[in-house]
Design brief:
This protein is α+β, with helices and mostly antiparallel strands. It folds into 4 domains: about 70 residues, OB fold (Dihydrolipoamide Acetyltransferase, E2P); about 80 residues, Beta Barrel (OB fold (Dihydrolipoamide Acetyltransferase, E2P)), CATH 2.40.50.140; about 70 residues, Nucleic acid-binding proteins (OB fold (Dihydrolipoamide Acetyltransferase, E2P), Beta Barrel); about 80 residues, OB fold (Dihydrolipoamide Acetyltransferase, E2P). It is built from 6 helices and 21 strands. The protein has a 5-stranded mixed β-barrel. Strands 12-13-14-16-15 form a 5-stranded mixed barrel. The radius of gyration is 35 Å and the shape is elongated. About 25% of the residues are buried.
């Protein structure tokens, strides 16, 4: 036998491999013979010819004659003698192998959501459908809105569809077809370093990511911060939305550092007007004020732009039948006397000149 006719060991092994019978579920390679309207035929060598339904091509790439592809065996022999193959299943099998490797390695990967629902983002990665829950989004992307505003949550999530997001694989189970991603896990290492650089008292810049009844959420370089409603302004705040809007840049002071969140204050960047204005009052002074709130235990009175004082029900008359609502009207001005000043507690007590006998 001439050198030309002598087969190498690799060629002998390849020939032996191609002669093996096909087994249901196996992944095999074939060369595209023809691309027809409803089917694609693959040359499987000594194993025969395989057929892939044309609809499967939309799942992967465009195929042309001569292309070498991997396919999974769905039926070892159909009535026409062809072997039924699936490109989708082969892609999924290979995809699961890749996913498990990346899960075990804790590797950061990039995904691009194709759809959203109120629970999170729908993803396809390595041919496998997966999910990125809302709870696993970073501070930058988490849709901080009121609990009842589900439409806005979906609107915020839809804005992330088509964007590249860096994530880690949180959970993967081929048997149950479960694939879960986490953006939080992907940025965790970097966040720990950033947290270590921050301390109480620092002034930081961020972007408003959510405005809710109890305060304002802020993204500070990937770290979530919360400005409680009581820390927005020195004046009484009825609605945080009156002060900030989503997407607006903001500056705040760190007043506490929790495990994974910053507690921030806007008002502590400004001088407390209460401290300045209270210096103009002293015990025994007669003052005029505007009734701002009426409660069963008394009335609140604005005696200067930043100072609100309380006239307790006990200072309105004797007996248990005294009703502040019968004595005061909202927004009316009355004369009072300063009974006590508690600077540490930021409280002023008043007595009413026309006390009921």
């Amino acid at each position: 036998m001439s050198t030309k006719d002598t087969l190498t060991m690799d060629e002998l092994l390849a020939a032996s491999e191609s002669a093996k019978p096909v087994i249901l579920g196996d992944t095999i390679e074939g060369t595209v013979l023809t691309v027809k309207k409803h089917e694609i035929l693959l040359d499987l060598g000594a194993r025969g010819v395989g057929m892939v339904p044309r609809r499967e091509v939309t799942f992967g790439r465009q195929l042309n004659e001569g292309d070498v592809v991997s396919a999974s065996v769905v039926d070892t022999e159909m009535d026409d003698g062809l072997i039924l193959l699936s490109l989708r299943k082969a892609v999924k099998d290979k995809g699961w192998d890749e996913i498990i490797v990346k899960l075990d390695a804790g590797e950061i990967v990039e995904i691009q959501p194709f759809d959203a629902n109120r629970g999170g983002l729908l993803v396809e990665y390595e041919g496998i459908r997966g999910f990125l829950p809302v709870s696993q989004l970073s501070a930058e992307h988490y849709p901080r809105v009121g609990n009842s505003d589900k439409d806005e949550i979906l609107q915020r999530l839809n804005a992330l569809v088509g964007q590249n997001i860096r994530v880690r694989i949180l959970d993967a189970d081929k048997k149950t077809n479960k694939l879960i991603f986490s953006e939080k896990e992907a940025i965790k290492d970097g966040l720990a370093e950033r947290f270590a650089e921050l301390k109480v008292g620092d002034i930081v810049k961020g972007v408003v990511t959510g405005v809710v009844d109890f305060g304002v959420f802020v993204n500070v370089d990937g770290i979530e911060g919360l400005i409680h409603i009581s820390e927005i302004s020195w004046e009484r705040v009825s609605s945080p939305a009156d002060y900030v809007k989503v997407g607006a840049p903001i500056e705040a002071k760190i007043i506490a550092i929790d495990k994974d969140r910053l507690s921030l204050s806007m008002k502590q960047l400004k001088e407390d007007p209460w401290a300045t204005e209270i210096a103009t009052f002293k015990k025994g002074d007669k003052v005029e004020g505007t009734v701002t709130r009426i409660t069963p235990f008394g009335a609140f009175v604005q005696i200067s732009p930043a100072v609100e004082a309380l006239v307790h029900v006990s200072e309105l008359g004797e007996g248990s039948d005294v009703d502040p609502e019968k004595i005061f009207t909202l927004n009316e001005r009355k004369e009072f006397k300063v009974l006590d000043i508690d600077k540490e507690g930021r409280k002023i007590s008043l007595s009413f000149a026309n006390k009921k006998k």
